């Protein structure tokens, strides 16, 4: 026996822990900070050894309940950097990934166990030999000769310490390592597997009838299903999940309420803001009643967020026996802080609505303003239209005059004249003795005569180098020219 028990000795403190589970537990609690490599090595060794024992009988790896508990996949924990209050970050994907990696394998194993449990619990055969045959069709049993010692406690099997098989995975254990699942409990665990129309839930009376109508079980222990430690853990986890589904913790319920209120407020708030803005501008696209209704609903939602988040922050803090853990309390407070920040950003900035008389005044003002604007616009358009008409008329007169002049003038002169007009207009360099062609000017225009005279004087002053006189004459000339331009345009629009 000593040779076998070596396997359960702690390689670090050389303490005999008696079973694999105890050794594993001892390691995880006592030597967590110590050599991780040794720990993993030991864990791997045991699961491999167990696989090898069972594989001899054609049991494949997935049928071994312990593999889920001994093959932990290590993940980096999410990094929780300090963050601003009220920040939102979705960790769902990360959590899902970590969880999926862990539960995939577990789900496959636990489903296999549950399907077998379902068949066992609903098998009406109680005659020992036949039932045993049926049990072995569900899962192959490990051969007795292959297992001289109980894999769980390490004790040697003999005439008094007999081998027993787990009905769910087929592995071997001794009497004291056997665990039992009652039919009733089994039924509870598997009822969700069965679709309601396919199978009626077994009741105690069903069980009584089947017992009396077929061969009676030899002892009452047969009304229980024997299973190993690993399979038992799988079933308890199943039970835990079912319980969780039925009665969610209060914190979860409150948080769901908080989330749904926040979601509803987030949906309603932009609609309301649009309405309030429009009404405050005196527009008539929305009804004041409707906006007031939205405002009331929003305030109710904000109240709910306030009350529920407050409740979450103090949840279980009065409970002397089961106070929330430090982490949980920190989360509860974080939820409250986030809600508080949310309310400050949303409730306190909620736009107010005008009263009915105020709204009527706003709408009246807006209508008047709108009318004024329309009138101004109409006037502007009218002005533009008239301007355009006048411009066209001038253009027309101009080209008419040009045409008549062209037809009178000799061809050679016509070209040079029109070139001068188009390119330079009235300039100081133009010939002072030859007034430029224009449909509106006459040869006897006194302004033109004056201009011609001033130009002549400028030429003379330049020749005599009288600079100051030239400057003063130039000023006179430009005044005369602009006056001439003004008169010409007045005549053009007359
Ligand atoms: Zn130790
Ligand atoms: Zn088992
Ligand atoms: Zn045992």
UniProtKB/TrEMBL annotation:
Pfam families: FYVE (PF01363), Rbsn (PF11464)
Entry keyword set: Coiled coil, Metal-binding, Zinc, Zinc-finger
Any one GO molecular function term: zinc ion binding
Coiled-coil regions listed in the entry: 463-490
Keyword Glycoprotein attributed: no
Biased composition (Basic and acidic residues): 361-403
Chain residue ranges for the region called Disordered: 196-217, 359-416
InterPro entries noted in UniProt: Rab4/Rab5_effector, Rbsn_Rab-bd, Rbsn_Rab-bd_sf, Znf_C2H2_type, Znf_FYVE, Znf_FYVE-rel, Znf_FYVE_PHD, Znf_RING/FYVE/PHD
Residues in FYVE-type domain copies: 144-236
Protein name: FYVE-type domain-containing protein
Protein species of origin: Ciona savignyi
């Amino acid at each position: 026996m000593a040779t076998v028990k070596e396997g359960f000795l702690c390689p670090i403190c050389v303490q005999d822990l008696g079973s694999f589970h105890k050794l594993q537990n001892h390691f995880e609690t006592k030597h967590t900070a110590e050599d991780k490599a040794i720990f993993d090595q030991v864990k791997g060794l045991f699961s491999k050894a167990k696989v090898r024992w069972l594989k001899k009988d054609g049991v494949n790896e997935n049928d071994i309940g312990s593999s889920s508990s001994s093959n932990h996949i290590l993940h980096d924990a999410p990094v929780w950097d300090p963050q601003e209050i009220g920040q939102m970050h979705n960790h769902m994907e990360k959590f899902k990934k970590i969880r999926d990696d862990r539960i995939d394998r577990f789900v496959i194993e636990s489903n296999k166990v549950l399907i077998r449990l379902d068949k066992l619990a609903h098998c009406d055969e109680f005659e020992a030999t036949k039932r045993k045959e049926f049990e072995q069709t569900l899962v192959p049993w490990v051969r007795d000769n292959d297992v001289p010692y109980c894999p769980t406690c390490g004790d040697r099997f003999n005439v008094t310490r007999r081998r027993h098989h787990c009905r769910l995975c087929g592995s071997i254990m001794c009497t004291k390592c056997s665990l039992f699942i009652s039919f009733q409990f089994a039924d509870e665990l598997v009822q969700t597997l069965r679709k309601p129309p396919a199978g009626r839930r077994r009741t105690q009376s069903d069980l009584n009838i089947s017992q009396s109508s077929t061969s009676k079980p030899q002892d009452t222990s047969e009304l229980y299903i024997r299973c190993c430690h690993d399979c038992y853990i799988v079933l308890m986890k199943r039970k835990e999940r079912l319980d969780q589904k039925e009665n969610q913790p209060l914190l979860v319920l409150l948080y769901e309420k908080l989330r749904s209120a926040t979601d509803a407020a987030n949906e309603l708030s932009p609609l309301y803001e649009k309405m309030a803005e429009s009404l405050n501008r005196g527009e008539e696209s929305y009804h004041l009643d409707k906006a007031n209704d939205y405002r009331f609903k929003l305030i109710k939602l904000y109240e709910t967020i306030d009350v529920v988040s407050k409740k979450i922050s103090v949840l279980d803090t009065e409970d002397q026996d089961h106070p929330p853990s430090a982490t949980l309390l920190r989360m509860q407070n974080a939820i409250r802080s986030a809600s508080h920040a949310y309310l400050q950003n949303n409730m306190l900035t909620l736009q107010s609505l005008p009263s009915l008389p105020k709204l009527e005044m706003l709408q009246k003002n807006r209508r008047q303003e709108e009318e004024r604007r329309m009138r101004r616009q109409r006037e502007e358009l009218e002005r533009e239209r008239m301007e355009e008409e006048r411009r066209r008329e001038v253009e027309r007169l101009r080209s008419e005059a040009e045409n008549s002049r062209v037809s009178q003038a000799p061809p050679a002169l016509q070209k040079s004249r029109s070139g001068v007009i188009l390119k330079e207009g009235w300039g100081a360099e133009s010939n002072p003795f030859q007034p430029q062609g224009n449909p509106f000017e006459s040869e006897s225009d006194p302004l033109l005569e004056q201009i011609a005279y001033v130009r002549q004087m400028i030429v003379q002053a330049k020749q005599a180098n009288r600079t100051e006189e030239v400057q003063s004459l130039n000023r006179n000339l430009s005044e005369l020219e602009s006056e001439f331009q003004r008169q010409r345009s007045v005549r053009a629009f007359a």
